[in-house]
Model the fold of this input.
Amino acid sequence: MATIFSMIVAGDIPSYKVAENDQFYAFLDINPLAKGHTLVIPKREVDYFFDLTDEEIAAMQVFAKHVAAAIKEAFPCKKVGQAVLGLEVPHAHIHLVPMQSEKDMLFSNPKLKLTPEEFKAIAEAIANKFV
Done:
C-alpha cells in the first residue's frame, strides 16, 4: 500500500507544493512549526532515509539546499533547520524549518493553525524564490 506521501506525489492527495524535480518533491507540512515549514521527499517510496542510495541522499540534500534557500528568502530567518525523523510516515523525508533560535526546531512545540489561503500564499512565496 502506498504511503500518504506517495499519494501526494501521484496527485491523489492535494498538497501545497513548493518545488519539484524528476526525483524529489517539496511541499508544506500541514502541521507546521513555523510559516515555511517544508517537507522534502524522494518520489521513490523508501521508508528509512538511510536506505536511500548514496547518490539519492546526495541529490536530495542538494535539492533540499535549494528549497532551504528559497524558504530563507521568502521567510527571513537566522537559518533554516533540517531534521530527519521519519517515524510518523514510513516514507523518507527531510523537515526544513525557518529558525530564529534552536527552540524553533522542537517538534513538541505547538503547531501553527493556518487557513488554506495562508498555506497557498506561503507555498507560492517559496515557489517563487526556488531556483
Remarks:
- Residues 84 and 94 are 5 Å apart (CA to CA).
- The beta strands are 17-20, 24-28, 38-42, 79-83, 94-99.
